[in-house]
Write a structure and sequence with these properties.
Blueprint: H1 4-10, H2 14-44, E1 50-56, H3 58-61, H4 78-81, E2 86-93, H5 99-105, E3 113-117, H6 120-125, H7 129-143, E4 147-151, H8 160-177, E5 180-182, E6 189-190, E7 193-194, H9 207-225
Parallel strand pairs: 1-2, 1-3, 3-4, 4-5
Antiparallel strand pairs: 6-7
Helix pairs in contact: 5-7
Length: 228
């Protein structure tokens, strides 16, 4: 049988065990109190920025190419879409560009949401849908952003039926890829054409229409960024 002195070393007195339990309980209570503080602070934080990356033609760039991550031309929808928390992170947009031009021109850009508005010049030049589709897929793979939105193209006075067909193929393609498809031109359409006063040349929107498009796309971008 072990001696009393050995037994006391193996089994601490009850008061000592109680003290240890009390210390552990206090530590748990203290930890819970500390972890509650960041949750309260998180509710008070300002919303984080959502960085938008764009790819397109003159509908996105306006009258001048996108340069240094800024829209410098008139007629773009982009400025009306921006504002806290949405900021422009850059991208590639050049007047007259086809999806093939975009494929060749884009490079890696960091951001949260990619928005592509492309195809007006493909339709005008008679580019086959299969080629446009392949170009768009390459553009998105080059940029490697998880959140992607593709926008419908506006009406085309000279290629009305082709523009309508392109948008339907684009919608189905976006669905297949898990992208968001948005048609921000609905209020600017009258059948397959423009509403009266919506475009001066049958291709480009007035600034008022472009601004309406920008506000519609802003909602879509923020929703996509939030997981919608």
């Amino acid at each position: 049988m072990p001696s009393p002195s050995r037994r006391s070393r193996l089994r601490p007195p009850r008061w000592r065990r109680a003290a240890v339990l009390l210390v552990l309980l206090c530590a748990l209570v203290s930890t819970a109190a500390c972890t509650a503080t960041p949750d309260v602070q998180a509710e008070d934080r300002e919303p984080e920025e959502v960085v938008l990356v764009v790819v397109g033609d003159s509908l996105t760039a306006g009258t001048e190419p996108l340069a240094d991550g800024e829209v410098r031309g008139q007629g773009s929808w982009v400025p009306a879409a921006l504002g806290d928390p949405l900021v422009l992170g850059g991208g590639w947009a050049v007047p007259g560009a086809t999806t093939g031009d975009m494929r060749q021109g884009v490079g890696r850009v960091d951001g949260d949401v990619l928005l592509v508005m492309a195809g007006t010049n493909d339709v005008a030049q008679g580019v086959a849908w299969e080629a446009s589709r392949d170009n768009l897929l390459t553009v998105t793979r080059t940029l490697r952003l998880d959140e992607v939105i593709v926008s419908a193209i506006p009406p085309s006075a000279d290629h009305a039926a082709a523009a309508t067909a392109y948008n339907e193929q684009l919608r189905q393609f976006a669905l297949e890829q898990g992208w968001t498809y948005v048609d921000p031109w609905e209020t600017a359409r009258d059948g397959e054409g423009w509403v009266a006063g919506g475009s001066a040349d049958g291709i480009h929107p007035t600034q008022q229409v472009a601004d309406e498009v920008g506000r519609t796309l802003r909602v879509a971008v923020l929703a996509r960024a939030a997981g919608g």
